[in-house]
Amino acid sequence: MNRHLSRCVLLTLVAASSSVLADEDLFFSDLPIVASVSRLPQRLADAPSSVTVIDRDMIKASGARALSDVFRLVPGFQTFAKSDAAPRVNYHGVSDDNEFAPRVQVLVDGRSLYSPLFRGGVNWTLVPVALEDIERIEVVRGSNTTSYGANAFLGVINIVTVDPALVRGVSVAGSYGSQGVRDYTLRTGGKLGESGNFRFTVQNMRDDGLDDHFDWEDRNANRLFDLRMNFQLGARDVLDVQVGRAEGTQLRGSYDSVRTGRIINGETERRLLGVVDPDDPFRDFDQSSTWLQANWLRTFSETADMSVRYTHSIDRASDAYISPDSSMPAAFREIDEVGDIGKRHEFEVMHSFQPLSDTRLIWGGSLRRDTLRSKTLLRDQGTVGRDVRRVFANGEWKPTTWFTGNAGSSYEYDSLGGNHPASRASASFHLTPNNTIRLGYARAWRTASTADYRGLRLNEPGDPEARGNRNLPAERLDTWEVAYLGDWRDWRMSLDTRFFHERLRDRYLDQIEAINGEPDSIYALQHLRIRGFEYQWKWQPTDSSRIAFSQAFVDTESERTSLGEVLATPLPIIGDSSNFWESQADYIALAEGSAPRRSTSLLLIQRLPFGVDLSVAHYRVAAIKWTRNTDADRYHRTDARLGYPFTLGGQRGEIAYTVQSLDGSHYEQRMGQRGRLVDRRQWVSLRLDF
């Protein structure tokens, strides 16, 4: 533990010594009710999977400026600081060369952030909610395809926003700090007629990115418009409507360089040529997402209700540039690998009821229509459509106080990916009211993105550079787990542990040349075995002190699929062999190093004298490999926040100072001469409430 963290811990404990014990009805001592696992409201002790709950106080105390940073607090999750590459959020690794992580479902008030435009993954630059508007985040650590479909392959992040009925008046906030941090937020809420409420947020965030290192530059700008309204239509009916738009601009590109032949720290040294790299010129990556969601809830009784939800979203992006290859026809020289537009319509119905006194059921179905248009990745195909239909059911059986059983199943039809059933079952044994052991199994499937199936990139007519694979099998995941949950009310302490064994079959690898000179494509080439142990411990020793500590230990082994064995076998003429064979060490390292062997997080929250709030977050992450061409050695990072809520002349507000990477610079995504160095960033914030 570094000296900065030691001083902060000492200060926290000294201040805590003067506090008195709090009552028992507090977050860290009373396990919350969650609804993100089975879609039934359940105690954590009854839920079929492990869940990490992050509340508003933890989000603020973490010092996070971007939502992706918050998940450093969740055991088994990985992320990195945003640079010229968008941040990713992974669970148990399984990363690849897709910059939009596609294996953890992300929801905001029930709306999936997965996009047909962004390779079937999540673009964390276009987060559709301000941190100030988040009520809590429920993170399901484990597969949940039965409840949320194929994208919930490894887990689910469910973001629940603040109810408009709880927002009144106007709040303005601003932040000013190093690395060009300039953030402004306007938030207001109030009544809409006799039976409605609204919450409206406008936010503008800007920074100069990380300190540029060697051959690259970056800067970032984000804008958000978010309106949520709800209406009490009668004694039994509630209508919730959300509309908004998120925009992002990110600088991409690099300067040209050449290898010198010298080896420094195991890496070939490069020398700048003083000009922009023509294959990667500086350009703005413009992105936007516009959405509308309407959700109607009808309550039949205390144990039965039905909901109907409609969602529509439009995502646009462009980082277009002109290829320097003059041999290409002019019509093919404009490259826009991320553009251009993806649309989604989704309609979902759910019904929950209690058929017996000890049984609860929820069932439903959804229809989804995705369309994607991309001049570069779907050349000459116009708009490509995709239909997904799904039915699901989850049930909870609680015949006695010492046992809870959960079971669920789903069936999904995908017009590009085929038909896939999924299932899950768990048994929770409540040894005492405060101690539970859970055994569980789940089978999940993940289908590829539209571009992975139908992609076609041409250098010129009849000369494909890359193409999709219409015969891709779905990735399959079988998960076994043993978990223990302790809720010790007298000590105001909880412990959630999870032992897991995950068997992932037919893992996709992209940019593969089956034979040298053939177009790149995507194939199912690896099986993975992921085993490990993770836990989170929470304690509130006093009224003014909160502690959250978590660790994850992950071990990943890989083997080749039958197709992988074929492509890994050199052909008689070496020049015709697959690039998968030529780079075996890199692909094995990517599989087995995509999750750190050990990761740790510690969050301390302390109320000091005079109402001052102090929080310290410390992270330690072992070596990790995000893509074939990136490596990050182990690192530690400390973030801290000092806030003072005040009332002056009847005016309420808060002034705060936040510092990230307090203990110095480090690499989180790419290291070496061309690395992305994360250095200290600090800012002062002021909020006024009217």
Describe the structure.
With 690 residues, this protein is mostly beta strands. The chain has a single domain (3-689), classed as TonB-dependent receptor, beta-barrel domain (Maltoporin, Chain A, Beta Barrel), CATH 2.40.170.20. 8% of the residues lie in helices and 56% in strands. The chain contains eight helices and 39 strands. The strands form eight sheets. It has a 22-stranded antiparallel beta barrel. The longest helix has 14 residues, at 3-16. It starts with a helix and ends with a strand.
What would a concise description of this structure say?
With 690 residues, the protein is mostly beta strands. 8% of the residues lie in helices and 56% in strands.
Low-confidence stretches: 1-30
Query: What is the name of the CATH class?
Result: Mainly Beta
What is the annotated CATH architecture? Answer: Beta Barrel
Q: Give the helix/strand class.
A: mainly beta
The H-level CATH homologous superfamily, spelled out, is TonB-dependent receptor, beta-barrel domain
Provide the domain count. Answer: 1
Q: Give the number of helices.
A: 8
Per the CATH scheme, the topology name is Maltoporin, Chain A
Compute the gyration radius: what is it? 25 Å
Largest sheet: 22 strands, antiparallel, barrel
The end-to-end span amounts to 42 Å
Judging from the principal axes of the Cα atoms, what is the shape? globular
Q: In what range is the share of β-strand residues?
A: over 45%
Mean pLDDT: 91
Helix amount: under 10%
How many individual β-strands?
39
